[in-house]
Specification:
Layout: E1 2-5, E2 10-17, E3 22-28, E4 33-40, E5 46-54, E6 60-69, E7 74-83, E8 89-98, E9 103-112, E10 119-129, E11 135-144, E12 149-159, H1 162-169, H2 175-191, H3 197-210
Parallel strand pairs: 1-3, 2-4, 3-5, 4-6, 5-7, 6-8, 7-9, 8-10, 9-11, 10-12
């Protein structure tokens, strides 16, 4: 599946992954902006690739990924932020919530062509483990061939802090509700990046169904 965002256009695309081995491709033209929201969950093992090409001067892409893993499912997500023109920007944030024996593997690449000066690219993957048997692995890769760029990346893997659970339980909040509050707080920073309020609400509803 390949989608092109025309010059000057501003589009928000929500892609709910329902099939295995999906390959998604997006091309962003001059001064266009893409907000791409990926929802990855399910009871079957899945592997998804998303390749975002910033082809035009001033093109921008905001990529948000929400991953929910349960039982013993194995989920994998591969992304490429490819900068092909000067003055382009990409900002990626992938968040996973994993429980039971679920496993998530994230592989993210940033590629900057020699002529793509003034590129600004950011990549971050945050993972929240709700059980001792869940696991997440993050593997970033940078290929920078221009010299006037700003490219950074980061990754975290964490569990529910015991002190937060204790604090909430002391106030009469059940463990289930406390976990829900913590997960909600964890996802908020990504959800808040969806500018369209109605789309943000729909994505949030889908997420709670997935959880």
């Amino acid at each position: 599946m390949k989608t092109t965002i025309p010059t000057g256009q501003n589009e928000t695309i929500v892609r709910e992954i329902t099939d295995n081995d999906d390959i998604l491709e997006y091309a962003v033209c001059d001064n266009a902006q893409l907000t791409l929201v990926l929802l990855l969950a399910g009871q079957q093992n899945k592997e998804v690739s998303a390749h975002i090409r910033l082809n035009g001067i001033g093109a921008r892409a905001d990529i948000l990924g929400f991953v929910v893993g349960k039982d013993d499912v194995r989920l994998a997500l591969h992304t490429v932020q490819e900068h092909r023109a000067p003055g382009t920007t990409s900002n990626l944030l992938i968040k996973s919530v994993l429980t039971d024996a679920a496993k998530f593997f994230y592989d993210g690449g940033i590629q900057v062509a020699p002529y793509a000066q003034k590129t600004n690219a950011y990549q971050r993957n945050e993972n929240l483990l709700l059980s001792k048997t869940a696991s997440a692995e993050s593997k970033p890769a940078l290929e920078i061939l221009a010299n006037d760029v700003r490219c950074t990346h980061g990754a975290t893997v964490g569990t529910v802090p015991a002190e937060q659970m204790w604090y909430l339980s002391c106030r009469g909040i059940s463990k289930q509700e406390a976990t829900r509050l913590i997960v909600s707080g964890f996802l908020t920073s990504a959800l808040s990046r969806i500018a369209d309020e109605s789309i943000r609400h729909d994505v949030e509803e889908k997420l709670w169904q997935m959880l």
